[in-house]
Automatic annotation (TrEMBL), chain A:
Domain ABC transmembrane type-1 positions: 117-300
Annotated Gene Ontology cellular component terms: plasma membrane
UniProt-recorded name of the protein: Phosphonate ABC transporter, permease protein PhnE
Organism: Mesorhizobium atlanticum
Subcellular localization, as worded in the UniProt entry: Cell membrane
Entry keyword set: Cell membrane, Membrane, Transmembrane, Transmembrane helix, Transport
TrEMBL record, chain B:
Protein known as: Phosphonate ABC transporter, permease protein PhnE
Similarity comment: Belongs to the binding-protein-dependent transport system permease family.
Annotated Pfam families: BPD_transp_1
Domain (ABC transmembrane type-1): residue spans on this chain: 249-433
Length: 317, 455
């Protein structure tokens, strides 16, 4: 009898404690959501106020704006893509497709947009290569378990953080004044950023390796380079490759944007086509860009799955 | 010491064929990869015509630009063909309307001395002769023969042109002498007029005086308190544009916040219909997943350009661009997180007869909410960085301002000011997001531990 009362007392106390805790938690959740909503509406208002056109004024005209996108003749999209003369060509910039042809050899040409897309992809690939080449040695120096000197580690880490956080657009602008505006400035900017971004991911991988092969090599008298080469590198290389592929995906996007601000490549042409309202050209460019990014993403995902298995899909959260 | 015999080597080789007899493609793929990379780099060298670009580049500008990030210069000019020598400063120079710097000295004998680095680096001149002192040497110049001529030896820091003599004095500046004028460039470390510009009544006053004016001085502009006047002068500083820069920076922050939040709100319900283990319809799941891929692949730039055209330039266009991209990115990550959940809590709730919504609320949500929040915070962090670039195509924020300041190649101090502010913002938001995610992962960790204790 007594034990039963005690038991139910304890149960009631527990239930009360649980209820208190839950109601407090509900209160905090509601408060958090409320604050988030207030912040959302405040920032919405702010963004609308600061914008050149206001949301509700412009909303009815969205469809008009989309109407220029629809070309009079859908075949013009293909003609724009492959630089084939259009019957609508009256000497204006909107339909001057064949002018962009890049002749390679005799009558054989690469269509302008493919050439520009190639530039953008090449910028992304070369800058990822630069990032990889510098990030690998930096990551070995920055890893706690591989480098005994804390000063050296700290310097490299801070340097990589700076490279990562520094706005790419400023580096691009600075080098545009030195090596002339165009893809080379974009390569330098994206490459420097990639060093920082890849370096951080790489040294975190390095710090999580199995140290037993390293100890084995140390026991037979291997020096630092030999230990890194034969104990560390084989463990981390698949992950390095996987992150580099992910970086290629990101860099293709960044190099497109860089193009729009003068970095060469497809971004500039796209910006021009959209701002002047060239429907057929815009659709051709968007189609090409969409397919390229989609193919790069899928190819990289496939390769990453081969390299590190399902782990490839874990985002760095 | 025992040595290994050939037979033993063979025995080891046959015992471990997976190590010693790997197929050729496995043994040679690193070599092939490196050869391919080298070939590709050669092609890229040709594609970007890199040798030519590097030959035509101006690397000597780099230290000059970098020094301009943290310094400014003053360029007084002295006409020698006027009846009287008077210093002239360019319009809008950092010294204001009535410059009288103490490093330009009118000597009692009628000559002028400009101290570029104290007396160690200076130039003294009148209408007939000039003398440049630097590096322990004084170079006398005669200006009477219709041409500026150096009498004596020419040191290597002086260049003699047809009609002009240029003395480069390193970081601190330079002197250019012709028959009819002396031009000086003196460089100062720091940012000129960072607080008040030359039009402000507080310009040129020491900080103690400014503070005493604000606290107890007479009203400099009738009808306005000195504090309000000082704040207004600072906010509207013509050279540094603090007000505009900070507003634009706020726009960048708002773009990232609003775009990510709205993207999350829209992606949240869609992800449940895209997750194959939750949605009943395989077709719907496939359609939604392709939709997410589409939103991601169209790319933030294209969205930004479209919305800039639709809504006009500004943060609304930028927010909308980030919003549309984030629907794709967050939708994909959310649905992947949902597909990786443990199905047992769901089945438990389902077995009590709960309806479909309650099953999601109590059987699925507790498991995925920390993951969702963590992914969203991560995207928020990366969008804060990305919003800077998007701005440069017209989507609002600090990006466009940075780009415009850089285009003239003359405003590097302003660029550096904005870069510092951007770095500060990125740093702060990284830390907020990291802190929140650490708290979350602790919650997750506690949850897992409790689960383990209960068995």
């Amino acid at each position: 009898m007594t034990s039963a009362t005690l038991h139910s007392d304890a149960t009631r106390q527990q239930a009360d404690a649980w209820r208190r805790q839950t109601s407090l938690r509900r209160f905090y959740t509601a408060l958090g959501v409320g604050l988030l909503l207030v912040a959302m509406f405040a920032t919405m208002w702010f963004a609308d106020e600061a914008n050149a056109g206001h949301f509700f004024d412009r909303l009815p005209h969205i469809l008009d704006f989309l109407s220029w996108l629809v070309p009079k003749d859908w075949n013009d999209v293909w003609r724009a893509l492959f630089d084939i003369a259009s019957p609508s060509d009256k000497g204006t910039q909107e339909f001057n497709f064949p002018l962009g042809r890049v002749y390679i050899w005799g009558g054989f040409y690469i269509p302008e947009y493919f050439e520009l897309m190639l530039t953008t992809v090449n910028v992304a690939l070369v800058s990822t290569f630069i990032g990889f080449v510098f990030a690998v040695p930096f990551s070995f120096i920055a890893a706690r378990n591989l480098t005994p000197s804390p000063t050296l580690r700290l310097v490299i880490k801070r340097f990589m953080e700076l490279l990562r956080a520094f706005p790419e657009i400023v580096i691009a602008g600075l080098f545009a004044a030195i090596v002339s505006i165009g893809p080379v400035a974009a390569i330098i900017a994206i490459g420097l950023h990639s060093i920082g971004a890849l370096g951080k991911l790489f040294y975190e991988i390095n710090e999580n390796i199995d140290m037993r092969p390293e100890e084995g090599l140390r026991a037979v008298g291997a020096n630092w380079f030999e230990r890194v080469r034969f104990a560390d590198l084989p463990q981390v290389l698949p992950n390095f490759m996987s992150y580099t592929l992910l970086r290629i995906e990101i860099n293709v996007r960044i190099s497109t944007i860089m193009g729009a601000v003068g970095g060469g490549g497809i971004g500039e042409e796209l910006k021009l086509a959209i701002s002047r309202g060239f429907g057929a050209k815009t659709l051709a460019l968007v189609l090409l860009l969409f397919i390229t990014i989609f193919v790069v993403d899928q190819f990289s995902a496939w390769l990453r799955r081969k390299l590190v298995g399902e782990q490839a899909f874990l985002m760095s959260a | 010491m025992s040595t290994i015999t050939a037979d033993e080597i063979r025995a080891i080789e046959t015992r471990h064929p997976q190590i010693f007899q790997r197929p050729a493609y496995k043994r040679f793929w690193p070599v092939l990869l490196i050869a391919g990379t080298v070939l590709y780099l050669g092609y890229a060298l040709w594609f970007f015509s890199l040798p030519q670009v590097l030959r035509e580049s101006h690397w000597e500008r780099l230290p000059l630009f970098l020094s301009q990030w943290i310094s400014y210069d003053l360029q007084p000019e002295f006409r020698l063909d006027q009846p009287e020598i008077t210093p002239k400063y360019p319009r809008f120079s950092a010294l204001g309307e009535h410059p009288n710097p103490d490093w330009v000295i009118k000597n009692p004998d009628g000559t002028y001395t400009v101290q570029i680095d104290g007396d160690a680096k200076s130039v003294t001149f009148d209408k007939t002769r000039a003398a440049i002192t630097a590096n322990g040497v004084t170079v006398p110049i005669v200006l009477t023969g219709g041409k500026s001529v150096i009498t004596g030896t020419v040191p290597d820091w002086v260049t003699v042109h047809d009609d002009e003599i240029v003395a480069k004095l390193g970081f601190v500046g330079e002197v250019r002498v012709t028959v009819d004028r002396v031009k000086v460039r003196k460089r100062f470390l720091g940012w000129a007029n960072f607080v008040f510009d030359t039009r402000s009544p507080f310009f040129g006053k020491p900080y103690s005086e400014v503070i005493s004016l604000i606290v107890s001085g007479p009203e400099l502009k009738p009808g306005t308190s000195n504090l309000a006047l000082a704040a207004d002068n600072f906010w509207n500083n013509a050279q540094w544009q603090h007000g505009d820069v900070w507003t634009k920076l706020l726009q960048t922050i708002v773009m990232a916040f609003l775009g990510t939040l709205l993207g999350g709100i829209v992606a949240f319900p869609l992800a449940f219909f895209a997750a194959r283990n939750i949605t009943p319809s395989g077709v719907l799941s496939q359609v939604l997943k392709r939709f997410f891929d589409f939103m991601r692949s169209v790319d933030m730039l294209i969205w930004a350009l479209f919305f800039t055209r639709a809504f006009g330039p500004g943060p609304l266009a930028g927010s909308a661009a980030i919003f549309f991209t984030e629907i794709g990115t967050l939708g994909k990550t959310y649905s992947e997180a949902l597909e990786n959940i443990d199905d047992k809590p769901r089945e438990g709730v389902l077995s009590t007869g709960a309806n479909e919504i309650l099953v999601q609320r109590y059987g699925v949500l507790p498991e995925v909410v920390p993951v969702f929040i963590s992914q969203t915070l991560y995207q928020w962090e990366s969008n804060t960085r990305g919003a800077t670039i998007i701005g440069a195509v017209g989507a609002g924020g600090i990006g466009l301002k940075l780009w415009e300041a850089m285009r003239t190649n003359s405003n590097w101090a302003n660029v550096f000011y904005m870069v510092l502010l951007t770095l500060l913002v990125v740093f702060i938001f990284d830390n907020i997001s990291n802190f929140l995610r650490r708290r979350l992962s602790r919650t997750l960790h506690d949850y897992n531990r409790l689960q383990a204790e209960r068995g």
